[in-house]
Amino acid sequence: MARRRRNTIPKGRDDDIRLMAALITSGVVSIVILAAMIISPPVKVGPDEGSFAPDFIAYGYENNQWAQTRLTENYDERIILVTFLDTDCPHCWDEAGELSILHDQYKTDVQFITIVTELKISGHESNRDEISAFHDKTNYDGCYSGNRNCADRPGEAHQWMYIDDISTSIAGDWKVPGTPFNLILDSDGKVIWNQQQSGADLNENVDQALARLTGGN
User: Fold this and answer.
1) 71, 139, 161, 183: most buried, per Cβ within 10 A?
2) Are strands 191-194 and 65-70 parallel, antiparallel or unpaired?
3) Contact call for residues 163 and 116 (beta carbons, < 8 A)
4) How do 181-185 and 79-85 pair as beta strands?
């Protein structure tokens, strides 16, 4: 009786088949991920451009004292730069210096309001003494995750109101997940620039946005 010849796959074919299968699987996974990214709505950060910023009542610090204030009662004829900071945030440490420069340049046409929140990160534990020291640029060991004295932060002492949002209630209402974060409102409180939304030129930084909106150079 003749023996049946066993079908064999030439050497090397087996590896090629495995490689092809892996490539096909990888391609399918990539298509699924890409489709999910396209279908999924973008993460919303901050109030939408064209909407009114949520009003709030909170304690503000200015002229060496804390007092209760309402956001909308501070509006005047100028546009408003609202900045969310965390006194323990390294990026906010540098942002403070940038804000000093911007204030010197635009204070005639722009009102500055800084909302100091507290990121839920280890080492980010703030209090009003730290907030006022960061604002005034005075002696307090506790800024920059407790690693630096507030008196050493970049820029000058700030001449505008800081809002206490250690509870993060305002940041939550405004859907601001991180710091620093900037928005520009018109004199009625409507958002006209959000640094993370498609309505703005995402290549435009806050200085460029202020220059455009104030007619500056």
Assistant:
1) 183
2) unpaired
3) yes
4) antiparallel
